[in-house]
Amino acid sequence: MREKYEPVIGLEIHAQLKTESKIFCGCSTRFGDTPNGNTCPVCLGLPGALPVLNREVLRKATRAALALHLHINHESIFSRKNYFYPDLPKGYQISQYDRPFSEHGWVEIPTSERNATGQAIEWRMKRFGITRLHLEEDAGKSLHEGMAESATKSYVDLNRSGTPLAEIVSEPDFRSSWEAYDYVQFLRRTLLYVEVCDGNLEEGNFRCDANVSVRLKGAEKFGTRTELKNLNSFRFLQKAIEYEIDRQIEVLEAGGRITQETRLWNEREAKTVLMRSKEDAHDYRYFPEPDLPPLLISEAFIQAQREVMPELPEARRRRFVAEYGLSFDDAAQLTDSKGLADYFEAVVKASGNAKAAANWMLNELVRELNHSGKSINDSPVTAEALAAMIEMIDNQTISGKMGKDVLIEMYQSGKAAKEVVEALGGAQISDVEQIRAMVEQVVAGNAKQVEAYRGGKTTLFGFFVGQTLKASGGKANPQIVNQVLKEMLDS
Ligand SMILES: [Zn+2]
Fold it and tell me: How many whole angstroms from 23 Cα to the centroid of ligand 1?
């Protein structure tokens, strides 16, 4: 049944722009402060208070727009979006409407469907259009004591009122829940790279809504869409869209019609539930904000931001594949954050071994970081320290197996590789003469096995290797042990 239909999905993201103060006043944007402590007549919406635009918001918005290939309008207009809500004391939100800050953007990103265990099936590149990125102020926050209907008390915290938001609206270009999932992940990563948003879903500074409809395959007209809100994790977003596609197809197949409405994701029951229907949808009565002049952005202003743009994650991923010969997955993981990618390149620069740098980071270091809840920026093992350890393996001072223990000890103690190796009982033995002496003893002490080996029982070779390694306390370089043994037994 599902095969007959094609889902059509559009996404709206509210990203809080990272600034010290709010968009139209000097109040702090710090999260978690005493409720209503960071407020003033402007963000409380007191009569007569006038908004003044924060210039830093424009720098951040410009970088976000450039990263998403958006055209920045040299002139845009702030408009009032009127609606009533307890956490919106002015009775309107200052936003942008018919002349937004920027429009006509796109991203081209890797995306893949997932199998039942959540593994990517096949990555391919796909381009998604971005309709616009505009600026607006956030509303306050309502907190309810008790559950929704039976709430006994409600509180309003206006600390969030007036924090700067970039609303990023996509084209309805997504055809599956996983495309939507990959896009929002990508967008968050990009905004973190250009340092314009913290991307913290729990603190609400990166929020996502989805518009979902279905149509018969081949049909040109879009079906009636529903809007999904409150998707406060990437997995919830994906699951809610998936559920909504199935729900709509079921309604249509039963001969019903989809009604335009807003629905919420209920994670406990794993389904979307009705929040409000179109009948009580808002008419926002937009009009130009009389207290703010048109917003003028010069080419020089844009250029100044263009010059401080870092390499973007997708470009960097591709370069990692081309320049260091990494696999798609390794390159994707290493460019997941700017910190991780910078660390990787520092290790490569110091060690000259990209493959080893990727392997040690992704197999060992990232696991240790996850265990201790640290980010790469707080890693007790610096890039230079990891590079020094990789060099000790490359020049056979220690074995790769020893390296694992050495790295864990470096991580826990913060000591350098050399120190740790000495403390663990010395380096690997690579001296051929020293190893030959050990091999000679093993051969002399196992005459029967030597005879059997020379008589054709070559599987005994492993036995001699094991005996020699044991005699060395595990420190003999296995490659050299192999060589010496071959020479001696086969002679
Ligand atoms: Zn204020």
Answer: 9
Pairing of strands 261-266, 226-229: parallel
The first and second tokens of residue 79, run together, are 């408009």
> How far, in Å, is the centroid of ligand 1 from the Cα of 60?
20
> Ligand 1 centroid vs 135 CA: distance in angstroms?
17
The reply to whether 306 falls in a domain is: no
Whether residue 77 is contained in a domain is answered as yes
- Report every protein residue that has its C-beta within 5 angstroms of ion ligand 1: 25, 27, 40, 42-43
Residues 177 and 242 both lie in one domain = yes
157 CA to centre of ligand 1 in angstroms = 13
Q: Are residues 119 and 85 in the same domain?
A: yes
Q: How many domains does the chain have?
A: 3
Residues 40 and 130 grouped into a single domain? yes
Give me ligand 1 centre to Cα 192, in Å.
26
Residue 28: how many CA atoms within 13 Å on its side-chain side? 9
> Which comes out higher in pLDDT, residue 483 or 192?
192
User: Does residue 369 sit in the same domain as residue 462?
Assistant: no
Most confident of the ranges 47-56, 459-468, 482-491:
47-56
Q: How far, in Å, is the centroid of ligand 1 from the Cα of 38?
A: 7
CA of 203 to the centre of ligand 1 (A): 20
Considering the domain architecture, whether residues 150 and 190 belong to the same structural domain is answered as yes
At which residue do the structure tokens 């002349």 appear? 99
Average pLDDT, rounded, for the chain: 92
Q: How far is the CA of 50 from the centre of ligand 1 (A)?
A: 10
- Ligand 1 centroid to 47 CA: how many Å? 13
CB–CB of 225/263 below 8 Å? no
Half-sphere exposure of 361 (CA within 13 A, CB side): 31
pLDDT at 118: 87
The packing angle between helices 432-445 and 461-471, to 10°, is 120
Segments forming the whole domain that contains residue 384: 311-423
Ligand 1 center to residue 22 CA distance, Å?
Answer: 7
Residues 36-51 have a mean pLDDT of: 95
Predicted confidence (pLDDT) at residue 426 exceeds the cutoff of 70: no
Same domain for 137 and 26: yes
Distance 294 CA to ligand 1 centre (A): 22
pLDDT of residue 2: 84
Does 330 score more than 80 pLDDT?
yes
Give the pTM: 0.84
Residue 471 scores a pLDDT above 90: no
CA of 442 to the centre of ligand 1 (A): 81
Torsion of CA 59, 61, 65, 68, to 10 degrees: 110
24 C-alpha to ligand 1 centroid (Å): 7
Q: What's the DSSP call for residue 206?
A: E
What's 483's domain CATH number?
1.10.10.410
Q: How far apart are CA 374 and CA 355, in angstroms?
A: 24
- Determine the distance separating the centroid of ligand 1 and the alpha carbon of 95, expressed in angstroms: 17
Stated length of the chain: 491
